[in-house]
């Protein structure tokens, strides 16, 4: 992907360093890598360099989206590596960390190699695949974690399926932990949440929907943290959505466990009332929560307790959403709306841009051991240039994804991507 | 005419509409009791019933109501026809819509399914029960029964007893009686009381004696055995012991309290058989009679809101 010999100067930018500073400056890119960073006045362009005038807009590391579902193999009519890659490029996502919950699931080196090959052929942005933690995502036997890692899997997860059998999860953690592989798990008490499509409370009761108490998440988190303590393995909890889970996570962190956690952009920006009159584009697993939970999780992102924000991009065709709420498929596309939705939190004063960017690029990179995602000399020049203030009304049919299932259809948003670069090569704008 | 185009639930139905339906239904009851000929009024109109769940009484009640008004009635049994061939709810609705019926009565096992359907068709849609969400005509016929027996529909103490969690009848009744300023008590095992129900302005207890104290109306619900995935109650006999309505428990209510049940009853589970048949206390048969009258009123008022044969509406 790198272009040897090519030099680009980004000037008049507002640079955002993940977890660090923010201010005017410029970047020099050479051979697909960040060659130099200048805060304040930017030196003149070297001879022969291409110059990108950023006109005061924000230049930051490209987003690393942890937990993207692509419909290959099995559901290419919902999303292909090509359409997902285009949506990513348009959304400022320069690395997609893909999920293994495909049909069939990615649980063998052969399946993984297929995904990597397809991604390489057609995706304009980087793809780093995850593999299933258990065979068939059935929670009974661990996958060939060693072979899969050698084949390129960056993490192991059964996606939104809970590994119910505690002994299976314990052994997988021990085995993966010993070789330093990252396990990502969805924390949830599976029996309490079985069949639920809403969060217990007045709203679900009024709509008559089968509901799960928010406590089910705390229970799942408690078990998983106990397993992390017992095994000493690294564990990432994919998405925390309730206030009740946060004190447990804080205690585990304080005790020095190697535990990290993510949040899903939809649970950070929407609450259960958005479901309104049974709107299936707002159906998620876990279900949207009460406003108090949403606000608490946003606070945990700001405080650094939650490390990663992802879109959990889940393409669904119209048929799987045009059903009664209970029967409709969960999930939403998010690659292209992750940035403007996350900027809502910045515009609301809940997060600073550097903190947001720690969650969008540097932290997922650190978790997965990737070199990109940083604003540092020698790092890959994966970049996004955007105007954080530009207002627009989202039309779902304008999205690049093959599936158009976004909860932000017709929403007023702010923030537009002006350009995306992968290894110094422009892939959008 | 009603202010709404469809009858999807009591929640979206203003009190004036509720009273308009009850007043018209009352006239149908009187005419019916006098043995007057069927009143007609919907000649040339078509009514389609689509039941995605088995039903005997509600479906028969709508069918009879439509026929007494002179409408063409077509019953589609959805459990047996196209659904088995994999046709989706929306496709079924669109197919039906192309036949341009005037009125569509729908029952579906999923909450919100009738709302979804109503967005896709031009005719007036009547919810005959969706999942555990609402069953508006049942609440309306219950209200008419209460008003006729009690002479009013305000400031009454109504005890709704049993499986609240799985009951659309309970939700619609709570909403309707609440809109008209009544005191509502929910009585049932805590496992069958849904979270946050207090926000609807009801009192909750798991003690029948306390719940029935001085009640004007005792409304029993059917224990929805087919919806229970197990473990809500230890056994039917314990349920009957603690929550089944018998003469002793009823003695806590006002002496003139009426006993209601939406049917079909599980005798010996939620209600004592003898009590259910006691014509001095039980109004269960009258509820069935009111059902036809209320459904006639609903069909008539919704049909009046439509220009003949056109898909006109206000939303």
Give average pLDDT of chain B, whole number.
Answer: 92
Count of structural domains of chain A:
1
Task: Please tally the β strands of chain B and state the result.
Answer: 9
**CATH fold type of chain A:** TIM Barrel
Q: From N to C, what is the helix and strand string of chain B?
A: HEHEHEHEHEHEEHEHHEHH
Spatial gap, N to C terminus of chain A: 18 Å
From the spread of the alpha carbons, the general shape of chain A counts as globular
From the spread of the alpha carbons, the general shape of chain B counts as: globular
Q: How many β strands of chain A by DSSP? A: 18
**Could you describe the largest sheet of chain B, including whether it forms a barrel?**
5 strands, parallel
Provide the helix percentage of chain B: 25-40%
CATH homologous superfamily (4th level) name of chain A: Metal-dependent hydrolases
Unreliable stretches of chain B: 309-315
Uncertain segments of chain A are: none
Task: Describe how the helices and strands are arranged.
The complex is a heterodimer of chains A (429) and B (315).
Chain A (H helix, E strand, L loop, with lengths): L6 E10 L5 E9 L2 E7 L10 E4 L4 E4 L1 E6 L12 H10 L2 E6 L10 H14 L3 E4 L15 H7 L4 E2 L8 H13 L4 E3 L4 H4 L4 E2 L2 H6 L3 E2 L2 H17 L3 E3 L8 H9 L4 E6 H5 L21 H13 L4 E3 L7 H4 L16 H10 L5 H16 L14 E11 L18 E11 L2 E4 L1
Parallel strand pairs in A: 1-4, 1-5, 6-7, 7-8, 9-10, 10-13, 11-12, 13-14, 14-15
Antiparallel strand pairs in A: 1-2, 2-3, 5-16, 16-17, 17-18
Helix pairs in contact in A: 4-7, 7-8
Chain B lengths: L14 H19 L12 E6 L5 H12 L3 E6 L11 H10 L4 E6 L4 H6 L5 E7 L5 H15 L6 E5 L6 H12 L3 E5 L15 E3 L2 H5 L4 E4 L15 H8 L3 H4 L7 E3 L12 H5 L6 H21 L11
Parallel strand pairs in B: 1-2, 1-3, 3-4, 5-6, 5-8, 6-7, 8-9
């Amino acid at each position: 992907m790198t272009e040897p010999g090519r030099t680009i100067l980004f000037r008049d930018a507002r640079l955002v360093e993940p977890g660090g500073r923010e201010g005017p400056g410029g970047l020099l890119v050479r051979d697909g890598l960040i060659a130099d960073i200048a805060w304040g006045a930017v030196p003149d362009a070297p001879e022969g360099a291409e110059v990108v005038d950023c006109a005061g807009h924000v230049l930051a590391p490209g987003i690393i989206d942890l937990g993207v579902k692509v419909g290959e193999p099995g559901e290419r009519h919902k999303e292909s590596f090509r359409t997902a890659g285009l949506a990513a490029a348009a959304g400022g996502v320069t690395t997609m960390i893909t999920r293994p919950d495909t049909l069939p699931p990615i649980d063998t080196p052969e399946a993984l190699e297929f995904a990597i090959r397809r991604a390489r052929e057609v995706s304009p942005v980087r793809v780093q695949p995850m593999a299933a933690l258990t065979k068939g995502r059935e929670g009974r036997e661990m996958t060939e974690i060693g072979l899969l890692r050698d084949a390129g899997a960056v993490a192991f997860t059964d996606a939104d399926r809970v590994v119910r059998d505690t002994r299976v999860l314990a052994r997988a953690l021990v085995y993966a932990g010993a070789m330093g592989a990252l396990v990502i798990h969805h924390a949830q008490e599976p029996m309490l949440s079985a069949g639920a499509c809403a969060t217990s409370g007045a709203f679900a009761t009024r709509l008559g929907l089968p509901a799960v108490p928010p406590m089910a998440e705390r229970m799942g988190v408690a078990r998983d943290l106990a397993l992390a303590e017992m095994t000493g393995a690294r564990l990432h909890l994919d998405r925390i959505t309730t206030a009740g889970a946060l004190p447990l996570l804080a205690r585990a962190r304080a005790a020095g466990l190697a535990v990290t956690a993510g949040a899903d952009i939809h649970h950070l920006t929407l609450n259960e009332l958005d479901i309104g009159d049974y709107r299936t584009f707002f159906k998620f697993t876990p279900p949207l929560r009460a406003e108090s939970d949403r606000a608490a999780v946003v606070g945990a992102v700001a405080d650094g307790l939650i490390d990663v924000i992802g879109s959990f991009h889940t393409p669904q065709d119209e048929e799987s959403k045009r059903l009664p709420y209970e029967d409709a498929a969960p999930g939403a596309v998010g690659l292209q709306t992750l940035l403007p939705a996350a900027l809502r939190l910045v515009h609301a004063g809940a997060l600073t841009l550097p903190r947001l960017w720690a969650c969008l690029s540097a932290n997922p990179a650190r978790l997965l051991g990737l070199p990109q995602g940083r604003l540092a000399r020698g790092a890959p020049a994966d970049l996004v240039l955007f105007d954080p203030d530009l207002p627009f009304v989202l039309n779902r049919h304008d999205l690049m994804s093959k599936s158009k299932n976004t909860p932000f259809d017709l929403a007023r948003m702010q923030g537009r991507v002006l350009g995306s670069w992968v290894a110094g090569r422009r892939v959008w704008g | 005419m009603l202010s709404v185009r469809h009858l999807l639930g009591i929640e979206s139905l203003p009190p004036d509409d509720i009273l308009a339906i009850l007043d018209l239904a009352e006239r149908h009851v009187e005419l019916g009791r006098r043995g007057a000929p069927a009143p007609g009024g919907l000649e040339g109109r078509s009514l389609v019933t689509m039941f995605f769940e088995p039903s005997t009484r509600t479906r028969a009640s709508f069918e009879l109501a439509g026929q007494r008004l002179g409408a063409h009635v077509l019953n589609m049994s959805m459990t047996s026809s196209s659904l088995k061939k994999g046709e989706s709810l929306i496709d079924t609705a669109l197919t039906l819509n192309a036949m341009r019926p005037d009125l569509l009565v729908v029952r579906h096992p999923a909450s919100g399914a009738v709302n979804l359907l109503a967005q896709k068709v031009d005719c007036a849609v009547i919810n005959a029960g969706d999942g555990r969400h609402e069953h508006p005509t049942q609440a309306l016929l219950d209200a008419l029964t209460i008003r006729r027996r009690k002479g009013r529909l305000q400031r009454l103490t109504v005890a709704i007893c049993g499986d609240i969690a799985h009951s659309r009848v309970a939700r619609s009744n709570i909403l309707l009686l609440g809109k008209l300023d009544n005191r509502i008590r929910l009585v049932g095992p805590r496992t069958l009381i849904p979270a946050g129900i207090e926000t609807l302005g009801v009192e909750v207890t798991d003690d029948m004696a306390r719940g029935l104290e001085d009640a004007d109306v005792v409304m029993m619900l059917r224990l929805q055995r087919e919806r229970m995935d197990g473990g809500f109650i230890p056994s039917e006999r314990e349920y009957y012991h603690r929550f089944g309505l018998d003469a002793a428990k009823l003695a806590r209510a006002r002496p003139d309290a009426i006993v209601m049940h939406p049917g079909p009853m599980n005798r010996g589970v939620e209600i004592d058989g003898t009590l259910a048949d006691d014509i001095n206390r039980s109004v269960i048969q009258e509820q069935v009679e009111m059902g036809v009258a209320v459904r006639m009123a609903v069909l008539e008022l919704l049909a009046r809101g439509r220009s003949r044969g056109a898909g006109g509406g206000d939303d």
